[in-house]
């Protein structure tokens, strides 16, 4: 059980044994967390009585509702949203009314490609896949019967310094990386044709290399974007958008300018710039007003191009579990974070040393005292295009494994979070945006988590590689897939090359588990030992098609019969994680027989109505 600080004094390990957390670990984490306060918003589910007065409820739109001290007068028909309760002394407390469930379209069932956008290059790409390439995937998918596209996190990184390759280590989860822009589609690009044409030639010359050089791509794109900005300016449409944006956009653009001047790590900046609210920061923003607007303009461009994709086909975005401690989100929210802590995972059967992710956690009581605003802003930004949201390591809404600085992952402890409130806020933002929510509930999932997610219509995530039961037994309220970016592709598993790579890198792979997966796959069809990678891919997706899941996904790596996966955990310094382009262009992929076969299989599987309970209508 957690203590007053939310620290759990024991936990059940991967072998089912109860492990006691050392007293010194508990004491150190308590000291980092500080004495919890009970400040926070009033959370009310729609249809339930709001807090009684005396006082006044001020709705989100400014409408006042007077209430007295009697329970009978407590309103039960308040609209969903972020309101306020004001007592007779004028003290205000946020009152949030939430729906019981997330958005889940009635009778909806669909399949879609899971795309690592950077890896999905076309003949027109500048060294890496971009949002126009994603639009090509969406159009192709829709023509083949697909209903959505699932993308890797597109979060912003520091514009100065090396471009962070991992999509799961962003500087911000609320803003996006302009590296994904298709420069030719930027308004005003036609005014500097010689610059854009020269940059395009330089960018496309990078397509000859399988390994993506993000730094080179960014240098080429940035020079072209700066030329467009100098020549064409932003325009009235940007000006209107900019004026409507919250202060966080200006603060983000200011941070981007400061990284260009002082480096990507805010904790290495001059001390007067450490506080985002400091007068020195305001002075720096004022002095660099045009450059601040330039970085805001880049965000507008990304929003436009991503929005164009989403208008053609729903886009399911991916929400990382955290962010870079030296990035923008950490700079702005530093007072709410435990910056001398990293989240991770305790030792398990796949990693006996445990995992250290380098991501700072929010202090639970401070997050609540802030009205959960960082959480709301983050999921709202991730749902802005509608479609859906895949929440990485969704168990982090319930508890996170905290590792204090200088300690090993084995010397951490779980810290509990206000899951009921976070799930309620997720439901509110989901209903407002029309976004389906998927919780990545893989690995060690404590008892009670999956039922709570199901009650909120947050879809479970089921993988063929992890599940021993026939896919026909999987829950309908789930997203089903064969594999993920962190696991072997079908071709890599089938021919043994993924296992060979892990051995070569000295990663001590789980060979028994891999052999068991190969045996299950071989029994499908059945597959002969000499079957090709393409035949194994088709067999895997025929097996996946048995799942009644409302969402089925297929990776573009499998469509390309690619043996190398996007990421091998623990091998960042040993191979080009997150930096391998697909071995074929998007044009070649669309013309390939395996991609077409996967599309046919999954279109046929999702053609009938879903057997899932749902509570709303389709929105797109």
The biggest beta sheet is recorded as: 8 strands, parallel
Rounded to the nearest angstrom, the distance between the terminal CA atoms is 43 Å
Note the overall shape: globular
Strand order within the widest beta sheet: 18-15-12-9-8-21-20-19
Mean of residue pLDDT values: 94
Helical run tally? 20
Ranges where pLDDT stays below 50 over 5 or more residues in a row are 610-620
Kindly name the structural category. Answer: alpha/beta
Quaternary status: single chain
Count all strands and give the number. Answer: 21
Strand content: 15-25%
> If you compute it from the alpha carbons, what radius of gyration comes out, rounded to the nearest whole angstrom?
25 Å
List the defining traits of the structure above.
disordered C terminus; alpha/beta; 8-stranded parallel sheet; 20 helices; 620 residues; 35% helix; 21 strands; globular; 5-stranded mixed sheet; single chain
Can you give a write-up of this model?
Helix content is 35%, strand content 15%. The protein is built from 20 helices and 21 strands. Strands 18-15-12-9-8-21-20-19 form an eight-stranded parallel sheet. Strands 3-7-6-4-5 form a five-stranded mixed sheet, covered by helices on one side. A four-stranded antiparallel sheet has the order 14-13-16-17. A hairpin with an 8-residue loop joins strand 16 and strand 17. The longest helix is centred in the middle third of the chain and has 24 residues, at 289-312. It is globular, with a radius of gyration of 25 Å.
